[in-house]
Design a protein that fits this description.
about 25% strand, TrpF_fam, 11 strands, TIM Barrel, two-stranded antiparallel ribbon, 6 helices, single chain, N-(5'-phosphoribosyl)anthranilate isomerase, amino-acid biosynthesis, Aldolase_TIM, alpha/beta
Amino acid sequence: MTQVKICGLKYRPDIEVAVANGAEMIGFVFAPSKRQVTPNQARILAQHIPNSVKKVGVFVNESPAEINRIAAMVPLDIVQCHGQETAADLAKINRPTIKAFQVKHGKINGDLTAFPDSLILLDAPIAGLGETFDWQAIVNSELPKERLIIAGGLHIDNVAAAIEQFQPFAVDVSSGVETNGTKDPEKIIKFIQKAKES
């Protein structure tokens, strides 16, 4: 069954809804974003997350030393890197990693094979805008499905199709479970249900 990551969470009630309804991963954004939290905010929120749910920190071009500091403080279970980080950078992070790749004009922006030890996340050209990438342009046979996370423009009405298309390890949603820029408990619940039914 496909795992679900609810990303960009800032408030305890939203986290509680996600956890209670079966999300396997909770994402905290530390990079500049309207969904950004401070390490201390994440640390307080993380205290209420059961050990069975993975706490994921999202970073963009942050130094491995700073990532490790924040990962220990929160504490994080997984580190997600969304910038130009290299495999050498990720090797210095003392947590399991997710490496994000943008899909532009039907092409994956980077070399997936350079990150054999990381989960691989495919995202839209600009993360967080709620736009999908061109699913049909990606050659499925070349994707490491057991390590694959699909993100970018997922919502209640298309998550089942994304899972059918890619058979991924996990799906990742942020803006797709928001209403007017804030997390919507009903959308979180329905998104997880749709993903789990697929």
